[in-house]
Amino acid sequence: MTDYRRSTKYAAFALSLAFIAAGLGACSDDDAAGKNGVVCEADELYDQLNDTCVSRDNAVEEDAGFSDTDEQGDISGDPDATGDVDEEDVIDMAECDKDNDGALSIDCGGMDCDDNNPAVSPFLNEVCDNLDNNCSGTVNGGIECTFYAHTRDALYKVDPFAKTLSKVSDVPGLQDIDTHPDGTLFGIKHDGVYRYDSWGDYWIKQGSFGRDIGDSNGLAIDQEGTAYITSDDKIYSANLMSGRATFVGQTGNFKSSGDCVVDKGNTLYMTSKEEDQMDTLVELSKDTGAGTPVGEMGAIGFEKVYSLTAAWGTLYGLNSNGQLIEINQRDGTGSLIHTFPDKSFWGAASTPNR
């Protein structure tokens, strides 16, 4: 209502100006003369009623019909309005928007279903996590939040939030898999590099390593599309188009226990296991291959972690007992998320954007 009254008031103001200029016989700047020969200056208008010249500013203010107080206070045009606001109409933002995300809580008549978390708001888009980000009533509604993992003979999609597993295809005895930043899925066997054709649902051999690289059991592709392969205490780079492998260096006192991975920060990790120890997370140099343990040795707390995945800013592991684990990259410790009965995982692939 306020916008309508404001527009009506200014429309009347414009009409009044036109009336002064046209209907009241305002003089031109060149020969502004009244009926008694009164001549007005360029910044004046002729007032026929009083047969005199008046300032243009005064004429506009008087005709507009409102004062400075009116414009700054009550712009409704209602002479009875005072501009006062009822106390019940004032919103206490400290109570109604506690998380400062711009959305009012449900208790205050808004639609923010969690006013203590700025990652939850009706103004947000849904992202892959354990939250109902857009207050739609569904966690991860309308988006797919899965990564690839495989057993000895089958490829699956794993949803770590819904804790579900769905089969995609058979696999030809791959040792490990990973996803290129463009979304292409690659895998390795001891004889070379393979690529998954999702349209034809089959695996194509890209080429042989061109050298004996031993027990190759881990594949990771970084953000630039460079592939790395771990084998015992050695690390290689590989051409994904030809399969050709190049020696990078040795990992030191660490041996690959089953997988390697590149996270969102483009850091290369692998799982390692020493005799009589649990699996540990090791950071590797992509230039020299040298390994550095993350946290204490054996920190993951789970055995036979043969699969590593970086997805949505989180590092996940899967092991031969069907356990899905979240791994803390600061200290290497693992937390159990879910167990998929009767599944023994051999490898996993990160999401394209990690």
User: Mind telling me which CATH architecture of the largest domain this is?
Assistant: 6 Propeller
Tell me about the largest β-sheet: 4 strands, antiparallel
Bin the helical content: 10-25%
CATH superfamily of the largest domain: TolB, C-terminal domain
Helical element count? 4
CATH structural class of the largest domain: Mainly Beta
The sequence of SSEs as H and E is HEEHHHEEEEEEEEEEEEEEEEEEEE
Tell me what portion of residues adopts beta-strand conformation.
25-35%
Poorly predicted ranges (pLDDT <50, ≥5 residues)? 1-32, 60-77
- How many domains make up the 3D coordinates? 3
Largest beta sheet: what is the strand line-up?
5-4-3-22
Structural class: mainly beta
| pLDDT averaged residue by residue | 84
Give me the CATH fold name of the largest domain.
Neuraminidase
Extended strand count? 22
Describe the structure.
Residues 62-84 are annotated as: Disordered. Residues 62-73 have a biased composition (Acidic residues). Residues 1-26 form the signal peptide. InterPro entries: EF_Hand_1_Ca_BS, Put_metal-bd. With 354 residues, the protein is mostly beta strands. The protein folds into three domains: 2-84, no CATH class; 96-142, no CATH class; 147-348, TolB, C-terminal domain (Neuraminidase, 6 Propeller), CATH 2.120.10.30. It contains four helices and 22 strands. The protein has helices at residues 2-22, 56-64, 68-72, 93-96; strands at 44-47, 52-55, 147-150, 154-159, 164-170, 176-179, 185-189, 192-197, 202-207, 216-221, 227-231, 234-238, 245-250, 256-262, 268-272, 280-284, 291-293, 305-311, 314-319, 323-327, 334-339, 347-348. It has a four-stranded antiparallel β-sheet, with no helix packed on it. A hairpin with a 3-residue loop joins strand 19 (314-319) and strand 20. Residues 1-32 and 60-77 have low confidence and may be disordered.
